[in-house]
Each structure stands twice: as structure tokens, then as C-alpha cells.
Amino acid sequence: MSLATLNGKAVAAVADHGRAPNEQLRQARLRTPAASGSGRPMSREELADAVNRRVSATDDVAVQMDAGYVRRLERGESRWPNQQYRAALRAVLDAATDADLGFAVRRPPRPGQ
């Protein structure tokens, strides 16, 4: 998000990348309490760390999800994380399906359909 001016006033401007934000993922994160016990919702960084721990524990590989990637997922800039990330996000955010987190393969309709 950046700032632009409209009639001399600063307003928030969002880059038009043609994709809708993933509110389901964002709301799932915000419903999940932070591990610190502070009563606050889980931050993007905490979600990324939890996903990295989960993938490392279940698949024995090191992954590098970060808060920036979570932000891109929430903004809809990235729509389909890899299978390991989707599985870990479902586990961490207590979601039954990818669709519960707003993940679905979205293809434009073919001409004539």
C-alpha cells in the first residue's frame, strides 16, 4: 500500500494487481492467538515461524517462509502456496481444507465458456 493524494488529501492506494485479497487467510490468522500468551492475534511473522517449524518437523526440510510471503498471500498476490505450506497453514490455523483458507486454483474462463 502506498499513499496518493486526492483533492490535496493523502489517501491509501493499493496496487491493482488484478487479484482480490485473501480475507479468509487473514481472518484465520487474526482468530489465532499469539503464542506469547499476550492475548493478541498471531502476527504474520509468528505464522511464518509456526509454518516453518511445522514443515521442518513433518517433512524434515528447512523452509524459509517469512512475514513478507504471508503478506503476499493475504493480499492475493500469491494465490496457491506449495503443498507443504498449505498443509502446515491448515494445521497451524486449524483449517480443514485449503478452501477454508481461501486457497483454490482459479483459472480464467476459456473463450466461448
Descriptive overview:
The chain is 39% helix and 9% strand. It has helices at residues 23-31, 44-59, 67-75, 83-92, and strands at 2-6, 9-13. By secondary structure, it is mainly alpha-helical. It contains four helices and two strands. The N and C termini lie far apart (35 Å). The protein has one domain (21-101): 434 Repressor (Amino-terminal Domain) (Orthogonal Bundle). Strands 1-2 form a two-stranded antiparallel ribbon. The radius of gyration is 16 Å and the shape is globular. The relative contact order is 0.17.
Structural class based on helices, strands and sheet pairing: mainly alpha
Largest sheet: 2 strands, antiparallel
Please provide the ordered H/E string of secondary-structure elements. EEHHHH
Q: What percent of the residues sit in helical stretches (DSSP H or I)?
A: 25-40%
Q: Give the oligomer, counting copies of the same chain as homo and different chains as hetero.
A: single chain
Spatial gap, N to C terminus: 35 Å
What is the mean pLDDT?
85
Overview in brief:
With 113 residues, this protein is mostly helical. It is built from 4 helices and 2 strands, in the order E-E-H-H-H-H.
List the helices and strands and how they pair.
Blueprint: E1 2-6, E2 9-13, H1 23-31, H2 44-59, H3 67-75, H4 83-92
Antiparallel strand pairs: 1-2
Helix pairs in contact: 2-3, 2-4
Keywords:
4 helices; 113 residues; 434 Repressor (Amino-terminal Domain); two-stranded antiparallel ribbon; mainly alpha; 2 strands; single chain
